[in-house]
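hey so i finally got around to running the thing on that chain from the lab meeting. sorry it took forever, my laptop kept dying and i had to restart like 3 times. anyway pasting the input first so we r on the same page abt which one it is
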Amino acid sequence: MISAIDRERAADLLRQFTDAGAQPVETEILQPAGTLLDLYGEDIRGRAFTTTDPLTGETMLRPDFTVPVVQAHMANGADPARYAYAGEVFRRQEIDEGRPREYLQVGYEVFDGSDPAAADAEVFDLIARAMAPWGALPATGDLGILIAAIEALTTSARRRAALRRHLWRPIRFRRLMERYTGAIPPTTTRSVMLAQLQTTAPETLIDAAGTPVGLRGTAEIAARALSLVEDAATPPINRTEAEVIAMILNMDGPMAAALSPLRDMAVDLPGLDGAVDRLEARADALSRRGHDPAQLSFAPARGRSAMEYYDGFTFTFAAPTRPDLPPLATGGRYDALTAVLGAGRSIPAVGGVIRPGLLGDIA
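ok and heres what got predicted. didnt touch it at all, straight out
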């Protein structure tokens, strides 16, 4: 149950965002499931409440606001634009997590490609000022740096795509890196299958396996088998490049202190240069708004466990006296999402959300 106090707090935060120039928007509580499934795959089912309607098909109770706001903007919005919203979102929780399945979310989204670094700083600064009465601790990240490092690897396009796809699944990502660097050998089962595929067409092996099980057809299974053969013939990712990925994943310190080491890493992975330039521009923009990059906590991989649309700047605000609580506020840049939902159009975009109910827990 959402309390009246939480609703009042949400209304006050929404006023702060509209006073900053945002246009208030609303979205439907029931969202088409297809869009979210296309974006995140079946994983989203474990985090959302789904239902089926005879007329509209499969739908989900709104798991967050960003996707429907992006959809509405890309369909009808003019650039640049700033939006604010407040309302309920719904997430499935494990029984022992003790977290609410329904809670309020207040957010601010900026669609503006004129100066992405300035837009990042604008959103961060607005959320920081809203969080100031609670003494919330900020922390920042930049998934764009990790993505740029992946894209710069001298390996196959298929391997880069797999690493990019599993960026938000840390355990799976680590296992892929171990396999692609040759740190762990292929399983016995895979080795046997690869040996058979050297002399036998995959369709022949599929027919010999008996009655098909599952939704994949013969052509899809055969294509997957041939991709495994191709991958087995791909040389391992070289040690120096793998070490750069590991250093980026482990980096954690002040934002300003990250610039020099990242410039050094760009010598081994030249594709990092652009991402580091964007980080430096963002640090300058934050400094102009009164946030000292020498004091801001920064870890490039921060945000990997959040919603999968973040692909650049990320940030969180945490309760200093309640480490048991989720972040009070989160946000980040999601440029790629606008391209996916834009039907040929795209625009740089960044936003942030606050959970008013958590603020009541530390008031």
